[in-house]
């Protein structure tokens, strides 16, 4: 931990600085826990409920007290969706078994804790790059960036993955400075775990590796055995998992379909949409200040390391161009990168304020301004969480399942790929593609069958056609007109229509 002295703007003693850090960490965790018992539909529900389905299947597999049909269906849904090594879902299952029930609060709490713990790595990294004051600024941005706060409460592996990446980056820097085997092994193991949690961590880790590799003369770096061992330790776990997934289980083949669209890099729309996502994740002003802060960092190995982090993010963006447009959480690694890039600017500002010798009253006003900004930010986040209650949506999907008598032999035009219906409604009918799915296939050069052929393929042997995404229903007039013209309505309510496929109209 850093030793704060009178040259620090935020604290004149080590104890004072430590107390400040504890307050920041406590406030960061507190805002994340607020209203955490709500249904996980506030942030990318498709991904969150997907993870919940996997965890439920793992839990129900050995839950003898559950009805046989529920146990069998939960396991079947899990097996059909299993694409990643167990991580946050496995932690959820362990907790479910300890408390004797499913409770989505706990895995969301774990995600929040992992993100907040990642702040330690951000602080240590920034302290290594600049000063205690600059590191405090970086930590504050990382902990309280609004998008990061919301994303860090999600039941998905990304917060754990990012935390492991951050500690791997820190271990890389420690290895670079000490040249000790322990730090090289730690960086490799942490990076390997991050990629096991989610293989896309490879890009961020590659950026960190590039940052320490190019910080030394090329000939010296090439001869660094510890560096290559570090990279090998990162790669081996995920390579073993991929071999198992491709050649033993055969479940990973679909993971790499409809993902790579290099032609998007020539489309100006890609850059406009990507900029909008970046602005949503870190904010335009922090991004600009972070880019400027990069150039305030002293030249040499520190700037090279930070450049490596930026380079890893840009490589990720270029390879997965489509998903950087459609999934803003693919930009999550930008939060700590911008935080670290703000550290030099925070350091410069703090030193300039100290040079002006603001005195006790001036320092009090500075603290008041910063505290007010933080409190207003926390209040706005609290209002965001408080404003919408997602529990009625969970109840809606449960009611749909009951209305259909838990019969999965149907077709459904529903939101979020039908995952909320599968989780709360316990049914998994055939998913009718939306217009966005059709556009994605067209972008990949894949054809879509004519409507009549496609419809007959979907409804053959099915009992009902469920529609809950009414806006999408309106966007597919051919489907809408055909269903109304040929099939009676079995049931209709607030937000849903069920057509009877077993008794077509004369």
Can you summarize this structure?
The chain has 506 residues and is mostly helical. It has helices at 14-33, 45-60, 68-81, 88-99, 105-129, 132-144, 146-151, 158-178, 181-197, 201-213, 218-222, 225-249, 268-282, 284-296, 301-319, 321-326, 334-355, 359-387, 391-403, 419-425, 435-443, 451-459, 470-474, 477-486; strands spanning 410-413, 430-431, 464-467, 489-493, 496-500.
What do these coordinates show?
The structure is a single chain. The radius of gyration is 25 Å and the shape is globular. The chain is mostly helical. It starts with 13 loop residues before the first helix and ends in a 6-residue tail after the last strand. It is built from 24 helices and five strands. A hairpin with a 2-residue loop joins strand 4 and strand 5 (496-500).
End-to-end gap: 78 Å
- Please give the share of residues in helix: 55-70%
Number of strands: 5
Which residues form runs of ≥5 with pLDDT under 50?
A: 1-5
Largest sheet, strands/sense/barrel: 5 strands, mixed
Number of helices: 24
Q: Which of globular, elongated, flat, extended, rod-shaped describes the shape?
A: globular
């Amino acid at each position: 931990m850093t030793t704060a002295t009178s040259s620090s703007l935020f604290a004149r003693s080590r104890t004072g600085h430590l107390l400040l850090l504890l307050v920041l960490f406590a406030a960061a965790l507190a805002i994340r826990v607020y209203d955490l018992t709500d249904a996980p539909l506030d942030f990318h529900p498709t991904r969150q409920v997907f993870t919940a389905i996997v965890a439920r299947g793992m839990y129900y597999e050995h839950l003898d007290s559950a009805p046989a049909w529920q146990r069998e269906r939960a396991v079947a849904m899990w097996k059909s969706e299993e694409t990643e090594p167990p991580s946050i879902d496995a932690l959820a299952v362990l907790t479910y078994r300890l408390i004797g029930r499913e409770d989505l609060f706990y895995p969301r709490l774990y995600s929040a804790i992992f993100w907040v713990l990642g702040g330690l790595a951000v602080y240590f990294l920034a302290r290594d790059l600049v000063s205690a004051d600059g590191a405090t600024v970086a930590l504050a941005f990382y902990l309280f960036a609004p998008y990061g706060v919301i994303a860090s409460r999600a039941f998905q592996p990304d917060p754990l993955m990012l935390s492991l990446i951050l500690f791997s980056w820190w271990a890389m820097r420690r290895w670079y400075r000490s040249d000790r085997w322990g730090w090289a092994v730690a960086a490799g193991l942490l990076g390997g775990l991050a990629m096991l949690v989610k293989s896309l961590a490879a890009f961020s880790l590659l950026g960190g590796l590039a940052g320490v590799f190019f910080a030394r003369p090329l000939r010296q770096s090439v001869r660094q055995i510890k560096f290559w061992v570090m990279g090998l330790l990162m790669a081996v776990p995920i390579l073993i998992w991929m071999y198992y997934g491709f050649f033993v289980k055969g479940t990973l083949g679909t993971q790499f379909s409809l993902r790579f669209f290099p032609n998007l890099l020539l489309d100006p729309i890609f850059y406009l949409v990507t900029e909008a996502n970046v602005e949503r994740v870190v904010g335009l002003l922090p991004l600009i200040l972070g880019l400027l802060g990069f150039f305030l960092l002293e030249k040499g190995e520190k700037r090279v390391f930070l450049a490596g982090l930026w380079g890893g993010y840009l490589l990720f963006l270029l390879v997965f161009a489509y998903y950087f447009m459609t999934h803003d959480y693919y930009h999550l690694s930008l939060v700590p990168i911008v935080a670290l890039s703000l550290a030099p600017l925070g350091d410069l500002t703090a030193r300039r304020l100290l040079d002006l010798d603001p005195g006790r009253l001036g320092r009090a006003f500075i603290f008041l301004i910063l505290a007010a900004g933080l409190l207003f930010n926390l209040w706005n986040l609290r209002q965001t969480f408080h404003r919408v209650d997602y529990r009625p949506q969970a109840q809606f999907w449960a009611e749909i399942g009951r209305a259909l008598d838990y019969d999965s032999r149907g077709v459904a035009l529903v939101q979020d790929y039908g995952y909320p219906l599968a989780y709360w409604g316990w049914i998994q009918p055939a998913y009718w593609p939306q217009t966005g799915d059709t556009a994605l296939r067209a972008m990949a050069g894949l054809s879509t069958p004519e409507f009549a052929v496609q419809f007959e393929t979907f409804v053959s042997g099915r009992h009902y056609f469920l529609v809950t995404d009414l806006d999408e229903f309106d966007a597919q007039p051919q489907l809408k007109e055909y269903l109304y013209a040929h099939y009676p309505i079995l049931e209709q309510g607030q937000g849903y229509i069920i057509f009877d496929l077993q008794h077509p109209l004369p």
